[in-house]
Amino acid sequence: MGDVEDVRASQAVRLFETLVQASSCRGTLQAFSTLCRQLDLDPLDHHNFYGHLKDAVRSWKVQALWTKLDKRAQNKVYGQNGACSGTRVLVVGGGPCGLRTAIELRLLGCKVVLIEKRDTFSRNNVLHLWPFAIHDLRGLGAKHFYGKFCAGSIDHISIRQLQLMLLKVSLILGVEVHVNVEFVKLLEPSEEPDAPGWRALVLPSSHSVSEFEFDVVIGADGRRNTLEGFSRKEFRGKLAIAITANFVNRNSAAEASVEEISGVAFIFNQRFFLELRDETGIDLENIVYYKDQTHYFVMTAKKHSLLEKGVLLRDFPETERLLSPENVSQDALRSFARQAADFGTGYQLPALDFAVDQQGRPDVAVFDFTCMHAAESAALIRRRRGRRLLAALVGDSLLEPFWPMGTGCARGFLAAFDTAWMIRGWRAGRAELELLAERESLYRLLPQTTSENISKNFEQYSIDPATRYPNLNSCCVRPHQVSPRTTPPAGP
Ligand code: FAD
Q1: Ligand 1 pocket: which of 221, 297, 364 to mutate (most atoms <8 Å of CB)?
Q2: Same structural domain, 107 and 54
Q3: Which residue has the least CA distance to atom 24 on ligand 1?
Q4: Is residue 175 assigned to a domain?
Q5: Which of 118, 154, 398, 403 is deepest in the core (most CB within 10 A)?
Q6: Ligand 1 pocket, 92 CB below 6 A?
Q7: Which of 357, 328, 154 has its CA nearest to residue 256?
Q8: What distance in Å separates the CA atoms of residue 351 and residue 429, rounded to the nearest whole number?
Q9: Would you give the end-to-end CA distance of the chain in angstroms?
């Protein structure tokens, strides 16, 4: 009998290790499903899943992860995983912010279903992590899933590695994840007696998620935001054209010794940019270089320089035409990015071979940042036929970041926590308008947050905004200011 148990225990550890080591989205989901099947764990038993998994997988190595996750789960805001029990949430989008929000909501005890329209995590591009985000991710066991996570002074991570790690934590905590499912629109409750409540129209329409009824929906599907009811404001600045490029990192000693560029703004280092222009004809406003799984560069280039170097074929006043695929020479773009990368690193990187993107093409791209979007409001409440729905935005759907600054993930995580706080208040029965007013007050803070002006006591951080924002004024928006804008007229 003892032998059988030993075999089962070591099988559990092996299966769990396969999940930990999985290096793709599909591989992770497959390893998770095998683990559940072989260990007789029910992934739909959200409430008990984590406890059952912990009981099944015991080894000193995994114990360190359980200790971290237990410590997080024991924070009093979560009410021992019961603060939001009975609340059903649909999260749209499995980017870093959708996943990070899903984790908080699961810790609060919600039933969380997350849908993602793709089944690959392919973005090599690298996100800058503010110190609080590094601390936060360490507390979720980041190092267990990715040993190189923020080693030494490294403060960045590739988007795909971050998604992968957050996906694993989500699954372990009992978030129900469905890939290859695309959100199309909300379906209102119908008039028939006993009709289902709020649901979503998804593609494929026959997917089981279309039957899921929820009380809360989170829009985390990136800059295009498909969740209806939220108007957006546009910030139009002066023309800003960004280029991202990823080169293969062979992890050689020569590559390891090359210094990163963590953001050389023109005003701070004019000489660098003047020399770059004199030597190569490339005129930049800024450049960032991070050494991660790839050598990642993001730079803002001046239009005249892109025209002179033949990257842009013709000049057009409208940015859309200017950057349309027909007007961009891919050869010249590659050579532009390579030259800038070479100069920026003092010609120290031995070979600048492009990494490939999801389509197998050299991973270099040009983007327009002239105009960025932000949602007019962060949350709204809809009511149809007596059924309430709380809808909220997080991440790029809420506030689009300026990539060269890499603020998307840091502000995205703050908004994820603020949203979880609102949902906790909603479940606790706080007055609707008061809750929305508080959420909007916090949202007004978000664009002003920097790694310097938020609290430095990361150990104290929780979804409670008071733990993160010093001098917090959560009443700067008053309840009477949110009512007409954020809650559409009540239905029958
Ligand atoms: P995203 O990371 O955009 O995730 C949104 C997710 O929603 C995606 O996985 C998408 O497939 C999914 N989705 C979209 N529509 C639907 C739908 N209808 N139904 C279901 N799922 C849906 N920031 C930087 O700082 N530096 C960079 O170099 C950089 N490069 C980027 C490159 C690309 C191609 C993109 C899209 C974004 C980039 N960003 C970059 C932005 C950065 O990735 C985000 O700020 C960060 O990932 C947090 O975003 P998020 O989770 O809100 O959204």
Answers
A1: 221
A2: no
A3: 403
A4: yes
A5: 398
A6: yes
A7: 154
A8: 60
A9: 63
Average pLDDT, rounded, for the chain: 92
Do 9 and 46 share a domain, yes or no? yes
- 446 in a structural domain: yes
CB of 219 sitting under 6 A from ligand 1:
no
Residues 301 and 193 in one domain: no
> Mutation test of ligand 1: which of 103, 115, 127 has the most ligand atoms closer than 8 Å to its C-beta?
127
Domain span at residue 39 reads 2-78
Which residues make Cβ contacts (< 8 Å) with residue 239, sequence separation at least 6? Answer: 303, 319, 370
Model confidence, pTM? 0.94
Structural domain count of the chain: 3
* Domain final position from 310, 343, 369: 369
pLDDT reading at 223 higher than 80 = yes
Question: Encoding tokens for residue 128?
Answer: 């800058």
Distance 164 CA to ligand 1 centre (A): 13
Between CA 127 and CA 145 the distance in angstroms is 18
Predicted confidence at residue 405, as pLDDT, reads: 75
Residue whose CA is closest, atom 33 of ligand 1? 123
Q: Are residues 251 and 211 both part of a single domain?
A: no
Is the domain of 244 the same as that of 226? Answer: no
Dihedrals phi, psi of 392, to nearest 5 degrees: -145, 155
Interval 109-139: pLDDT, tens: 999 999 999 999 999 999 999 999 999 999 9
Q: Does 139 lie in the same domain as 112? A: yes
CATH of the domain at 419: 3.50.50.60
* Ligand 1 pocket, mutate which of 97, 182, 294, 396 (most atoms under 8 A from CB): 396
Q: Note the pLDDT tens digit of each residue in 64-101.
A: 999 999 999 999 999 999 999 999 999 999 999 999 99
Tell which of 307, 334, 369 closes a domain: 369
Residues 358 and 244 in one domain: yes
The answer as to whether 492 is a domain residue is no
H-type alpha helices, 95-154? 96-107, 131-139, 142-145
Same domain? For 229 and 242 the reply is: no
3-state DSSP helix/strand/coil % of the chain, to nearest 5? 40, 20, 40
Task: Count other C-beta atoms under 10 Å from residue 257's C-beta.
Answer: 8
- Which residues have CB under 8 Å from 72's CB, separation 6+? 107, 139, 140
Atom of ligand 1 nearest to the CA of 408: 45
Query: Ligand 1 centroid to 64 CA: how many Å?
Result: 31
Pick the atom of ligand 1 nearest to 400's CA: 45
Q: Is residue 245 part of a domain?
A: yes
Per residue in 278-336, pLDDT (tens digit) is: 999 999 999 999 999 999 999 999 999 999 999 999 999 999 999 999 999 999 999 99
User: Which atom of ligand 1 lies closest to the CA of 127?
Assistant: 25
